[in-house]
C-alpha cells in the first residue's frame, strides 16, 4: 500500500495498492520535489473514468513502469472532483500546449509546480518511453524546460477579460441580439438526431435551457423542434438506462446509442431541471416518466442515509465497460420467457448483438408505444407488459456485480441536484420530491456549512476541502429554488449569505468576475476564473443568474449591478460563438423583457403557487407568505378580505391584486403582449 491508503477519495483509494509511490496533492509531495530537485508527475482522474482504469491496469499496476516513475519523479495522484482547482490549472496548461484535454490527465511539472509537458492516456510502452524521455530532458535541457513552463504560467495568469477580449457595454438587451445568438447556434444543430452535429454527443443542459428561454421569448418554431428532437432522443436512446433509470455521461456515437456508461450526479441533476421545464411546456408523458424514473434511481442507488447524494457510478464492472447494462440474446430469453419475442422486436435484439461481442444494448428512437405499433406488436395491454418486462430485467440485474460507487458527497453537485429536484417538484407537484429536496437542503446546511462558509466534500461524517466558487454558486441556486417551492425565507437568506461571502472572498473588482478559489484557500501557481460554460455551466454564469434573482426578490441593487456587468462583458462571445456560453445567453434572454414578480399572500399561497407552476413561465420569480413578511416583494402586501391575493408585478410595479390564478395568468398574458 502507498500513501493514498490514508485518503478518503474513492479514486485515490483505487490507486492505494499500486506499486507507484503515489502522494496525494499537498505540501509533503511538493516539498520533497524541491528538496530532491526532481520533476513532478501529477496524474489526475476520477473514480468513474474508464480510461483512468485502463491506464492503471496497463501501467500503474506494473512493477517495471512503477519503478521508472518512482526512481525519477515525485508522483502525485489527484481526484479531479475533489480538487477541481488543481485540475483546472493543469488542464488549462495542457490545452495551452496544443493537446486536447481529457482524463486521465498526466502533467509533468518542475519542482516549483510549473507545468512543462502533458498528455492524456498512453499505452504502457509509449508511457514508459515518455517517462524516460522527460527525465532526460529534465537533466539535459533544464533551461529550455524552465522557459517553456514560464510561458504556460503567463498564459494561465492572463485575466479572462484579456484572454477573451471582453469589454463592458452599456447597451440594453435586445431581442435582435438573441435572434443572432440563435442563428449562430443553429448552424451546429443535428436536426435529425438532436444535439449538436458532432460525435461523441454530450447532453448539454445549458444549451437546452437557452432554447427553452429563446422559445418563450420568440415562439420560434425551430427552437422548440430542435429541443424536442434532442430531448426525445436523449430520453429514448441508449444513453438512458431503460431498466433502472438515469442517464449515462455521454454517447460515444452520434445516435445516442452506446454511452460511456458511467452515471454522474451532475448530469442527472441538470437533466431533471431541463425535462421539468420541457414537460411544463409540452406536457409530453415521456418527459414526466423520465423525471420520475430518474428520481427513483437517485433515491434508490445514490442517496446517503444522511440525505446527501453520492457522486457517480463507475462505467466498469468486473473490469468490463458497461457489463452491468448489456445483455446477450440468451440472457434476455431466459429472463423474459414468453415476453422475449415481442421485446426482441421492440429493441432489435439479435443473436450477434446489436452492439459488439454478442451483446445487446437497449435503445429506441421513437416511444415504446409507437415502436410497438411500427413493429406490429402493439396490444391493448402493451403498457403493462412493457413495464413488467423491464421490471424482470431490473430484478435480474440485481444479481450482477454492480459498478463501483463514488460515495463522496460534493456540495456543488448536490446544489445542482437540489435545483433539479425543485424544478421537478414544480413540474410534477409530487410531495415526495419536495421532501427529498428539503432533505438535500438540510444536509448541505447542517453537514457542509460552517458559519456561512461551505465545505466542498463530505465523507465518513466529515466535511473537508475549502469550497470553490462552483459550490457556492450551485448551492445558492438550489436554495433559491427551495425558497420558491416552500416560501421558507430561511433558504432565501442562506442563498444571499453565500453570495455575500463570494462577493467578499472570490470577486475580482478589476476583472469583474469571480475567482474559482477562495481567497482563504490554498494558493496554486495560478488563480483561475471559470467563465466558459461546459457540460456544467461556468460557476461565474451561475453566479450571474443567482445575483440577478436575489436582486429582484430582495431588491438588492448591488447584486443586480454585478450581474449586469458580468453579463454585458460576455456579449461579444454570445454573439459570435454562443454554444460555449449558453447559460449566459439564457440569462440574456431573461433580461430582454421584464421578469414577472409573482407575489402570493394568504392561507392558500402554496396551493396557488402549485397552480401557477402549471404554466410555462421561465422568466419569473415567485415569493409568498401565508401571513405577512418583511421581504421587499412582500412587505405591505395583504390578503383581499381574507382571501389569498395574487400580485403580478414587473420592475417593482404591481397590477391590481386578484384572487384567482386564472385572472393572474390573464394579467401575465396581457403584460407580455404589450
Description of the molecule:
- The protein is α+β, with helices and mostly antiparallel strands and 674 residues long.
- The strands form seven sheets. It has a five-stranded mixed beta sheet, sandwiched between helices.
- Strand 21 (645-650) and strand 22 form a beta hairpin.
- Helix 9 crosses helix 10, helix 12 (265-282) packs antiparallel against helix 13 (285-302) and helix 18 runs antiparallel to helix 19 (431-447).
- The longest helix has 18 residues, at 265-282.
- The chain starts with 9 loop residues before the first helix and ends with a helix.
Q: Could you give a short description of this structure?
A:
By secondary structure, the protein is of the alpha+beta class. Helices cover about 50% and strands about 10% of the residues.
Radius of gyration from CA coordinates: 26 Å
**In oligomeric terms, what are we looking at?**
single chain
Shape: globular
Structure summary, number of beta strands: 22
Estimate percent helicity.
Answer: 40-55%
If strands are numbered along the chain, what order do they take across the biggest sheet? 1-3-2-4-5
Could you tell me the mean pLDDT?
A: 96
Strand content: 5-15%
Q: List segments where confidence is low: pLDDT < 50 over at least 5 consecutive residues.
A: none
Major sheet summary line: 5 strands, mixed
Termini separation: 70 Å
Going by helix content, strand content and strand pairing, the class is alpha+beta
Amino acid at each position: 500500500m502507498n500513501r493514498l491508503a490514508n485518503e478518503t477519495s474513492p479514486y485515490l483509494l483505487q490507486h492505494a495498492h499500486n506499486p507507484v509511490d503515489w502522494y496525494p496533492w499537498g505540501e509533503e509531495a511538493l516539498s520533497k520535489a524541491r528538496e530532491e530537485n526532481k520533476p513532478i508527475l501529477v496524474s489526475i482522474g476520477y473514480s468513474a473514468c474508464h480510461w483512468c482504469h485502463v491506464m492503471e491496469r496497463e501501467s500503474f499496476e506494473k512493477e517495471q513502469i512503477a519503478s521508472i516513475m518512482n526512481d525519477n519523479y515525485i508522483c502525485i495522484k489527484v481526484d479531479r472532483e475533489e480538487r477541481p482547482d488543481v485540475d483546472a490549472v493543469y488542464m488549462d496548461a495542457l490545452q495551452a500546449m496544443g493537446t486536447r484535454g481529457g482524463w486521465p490527465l498526466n502533467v509533468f511539472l518542475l519542482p516549483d509546480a510549473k507545468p512543462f509537458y502533458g498528455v492524456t492516456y498512453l499505452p504502457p510502452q509509449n508511457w514508459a518511453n515518455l517517462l524516460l524521455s522527460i527525465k532526460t530532458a529534465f537533466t539535459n535541457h533544464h533551461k529550455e524546460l524552465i522557459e517553456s513552463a514560464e510561458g504556460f504560467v503567463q498564459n494561465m495568469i492572463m485575466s479572462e477579460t484579456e484572454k477573451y477580449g471582453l469589454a463592458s457595454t452599456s447597451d440594453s438587451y435586445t431581442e435582435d441580439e438573441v435572434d443572432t445568438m440563435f442563428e449562430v447556434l443553429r448552424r451546429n444543430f443535428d436536426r435529425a438526431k438532436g444535439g449538436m452535429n458532432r460525435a461523441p454527443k454530450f447532453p448539454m443542459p445549458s444549451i437546452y435551457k437557452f432554447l427553452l428561454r429563446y422559445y418563450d421569448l420568440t415562439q420560434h418554431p425551430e427552437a422548440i423542434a430542435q429541443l424536442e428532437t434532442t430531448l426525445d432522443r436523449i430520453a429514448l436512446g441508449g444513453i438512458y438506462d431503460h431498466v433502472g433509470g438515469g442517464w449515462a455521461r455521454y454517447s460515444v456515437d452520434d445516435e445516442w446509442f452506446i454511452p460511456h456508461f458511467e452515471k454522474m450526479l451532475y448530469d442527472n441533476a441538470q437533466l431533471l431541471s431541463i425535462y421539468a421545464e420541457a414537460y411544463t411546456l409540452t406536457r409530453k408523458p415521456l418527459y414526466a416518466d423520465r423525471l420520475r424514473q430518474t428520481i427513483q434511481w437517485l433515491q434508490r442507488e445514490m442517496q446517503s442515509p444522511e440525505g446527501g447524494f453520492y457522486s457517480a457510478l463507475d462505467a466498469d464492472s468486473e473490469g468490463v465497460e458497461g457489463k452491468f447494462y448489456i445483455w446477450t440474446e440468451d440472457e434476455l430469453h431466459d429472463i423474459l420467457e414468453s415476453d422475449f419475442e415481442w421485446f426482441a422486436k421492440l429493441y432489435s435484439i439479435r443473436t450477434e448483438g446489436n452492439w459488439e461481442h454478442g451483446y445487446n444494448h437497449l435503445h429506441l428512437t421513437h416511444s415504446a408505444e409507437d415502436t410497438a405499433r411500427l413493429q406490429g406488436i402493439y396490444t391493448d395491454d402493451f403498457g403493462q407488459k412493457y413495464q413488467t418486462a423491464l421490471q424482470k430485467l431490473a430484478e435480474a440485474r440485481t444479481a450482477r456485480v454492480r459498478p463501483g460507487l463514488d460515495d463522496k458527497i460534493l456540495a456543488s453537485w448536490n446544489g445542482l441536484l437540489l435545483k433539479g429536484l425543485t424544478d421537478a417538484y414544480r413540474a410534477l407537484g409530487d410531495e415526495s420530491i419536495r421532501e427529498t429536496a428539503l432533505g438535500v437542503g438540510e444536509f448541505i446546511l447542517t453537514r457542509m456549512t460552517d458559519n456561512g462558509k461551505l465545505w466542498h466534500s463530505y465523507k465518513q461524517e466529515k466535511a473537508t476541502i475549502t469550497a470553490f466558487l462552483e459550490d457556492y454558486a450551485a448551492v445558492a441556486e438550489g436554495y433559491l429554488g427551495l425558497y420558491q417551492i416552500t416560501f421558507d425565507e430561511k433558504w432565501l437568506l442562506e442563498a444571499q449569505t453565500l453570495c455575500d461571502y463570494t462577493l467578499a472572498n472570490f470577486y475580482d473588482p478589476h476583472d469583474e468576475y469571480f475567482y474559482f478559489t477562495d481567497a482563504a484557500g490554498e494558493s496554486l501557481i495560478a488563480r483561475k476564473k471559470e467563465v466558459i460554460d461546459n457540460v456544467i455551466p461556468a460557476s461565474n454564469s451561475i453566479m450571474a443568474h443567482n445575483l440577478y434573482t436575489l436582486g429582484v426578490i430582495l431588491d438588492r441593487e448591488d447584486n443586480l449591478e454585478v450581474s449586469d456587468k458580468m453579463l454585458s462583458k460576455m456579449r461579444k462571445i454570445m454573439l459570435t460563438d454562443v454554444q460555449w456560453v449558453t447559460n449566459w445567453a439564457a440569462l440574456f434572454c431573461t433580461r430582454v423583457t421584464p421578469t414577472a414578480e409573482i407575489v402570493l399572500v394568504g392561507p392558500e399561497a402554496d396551493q396557488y403557487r402549485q397552480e401557477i407552476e402549471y404554466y410555462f413561465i421561465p422568466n419569473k420569480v415567485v415569493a409568498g407568505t401565508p401571513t405577512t413578511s418583511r421581504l421587499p416583494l412582500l412587505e405591505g402586501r395583504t390578503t383581499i378580505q381574507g382571501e389569498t391575493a395574487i400580485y403580478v408585478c414587473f420592475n417593482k410595479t404591481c397590477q391590481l391584486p386578484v384572487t384567482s390564478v386564472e385572472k393572474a395568468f390573464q394579467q401575465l398574458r396581457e403584460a407580455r403582449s404589450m
